[in-house]
Amino acid sequence: MREIKPKKRINPAMIIAGVIVVALLAMTPFIVEQIEPGQVGVVYKPSSGVQDETLSQGWHVVSPITRVTEYPIRTQTKSLDNMTLATKDGKNIVVDFTYSFAVSPDQVTKVFNKFGPIDIDEIADGYLKQRLYDASREQISKVTVLELFGEESGNVSTSIQTQFAEDVKKIGFIIEDVALGAPKPDEKTQEAIDSRVKASQELDKKKTDLAIAKAEAERLRVEAQGEADARLIEAQGLAKAQKELQKTLTAEMIQYEAVKKWDGKSPLVSGSGSMVQLPLPDQETEKE
């Protein structure tokens, strides 16, 4: 006869452990959360609401009933095209904007409490867009269209960024940069701008021509003054020479000059002194 072996009894503890393992494996997708780099996780619990502490990047084990919403804290750039705004003088212009922003890591819960578990792009396309529009409208309305195209362009861009950043800072957004594109005016406004630019160029040309004329006049004046100064110096030198010459015209010098001109005829002696008087040509002619 074949021997019948008794059946092995299954250990109840092993069954229970297996059930627990299967249950844990089945629940794993619901209790492990992965936070991607550049983001933080906002934790919401039905029993206590939004938690102050957020989840950093990496893997986190959470309760199956806990809801985690990821918010990016890295810098993002958004563009807003064809925003129509009015200037101080009532001209409508179309402007493009580009701005960079991020969610402040220590204020992420403020963003969640205000907007709820919605995507950050929805916030940018709604709330942030409106705040930028309000700041732009207020600042551009303070300048004329010509000022906006001219020297005030940089100041307006800075003012928009300052107001925009202060407005959204209190709820947790950081505005890092705002770039104002070249304003696009309507046809009439463009004609006015072109006329202003042309007039400015003509004025600059006249100023340049005037500066050249003044420089030429100054050159001629300096040359004339130089010539006059030279003549004056020459005259002063001649006068000084004559004055010095007069000082040297003694009686001996005069007599010497007369001797050089003597024609060889006997001199006339005048007086008892040694003075020799040479005959003058006119006197000799009369005696003859």
Write the SSE topology:
Layout: H1 12-31, E1 32-35, E2 39-45, E3 49-50, E4 58-61, E5 67-72, E6 76-86, E7 92-103, H2 108-115, H3 120-140, H4 145-149, H5 153-169, E8 173-180, E9 184-185, H6 187-248, H7 251-260, E10 268-269, E11 276-277, H8 281-287
Antiparallel strand pairs: 1-4, 2-3, 2-5, 6-7, 7-8, 7-9, 10-11
Descriptive account of the structure:
With 288 residues, this protein is α+β, with helices and mostly antiparallel strands. The protein has 4 domains: 12-69, no CATH class; 76-188, 2-Layer Sandwich (Tetrahydropterin Synthase, Chain A), CATH 3.30.479; 211-248; 252-287, no CATH class. 52% of the residues lie in helices and 21% in strands. Strands 6, 7, 8 and 9 form a 4-stranded antiparallel beta sheet that branches. Strands 3-2-5 form a 3-stranded antiparallel beta sheet, covered by helices on one side. Strand 2 and strand 3 (49-50) form a beta hairpin. Residues 283-288 have low confidence and may be disordered.
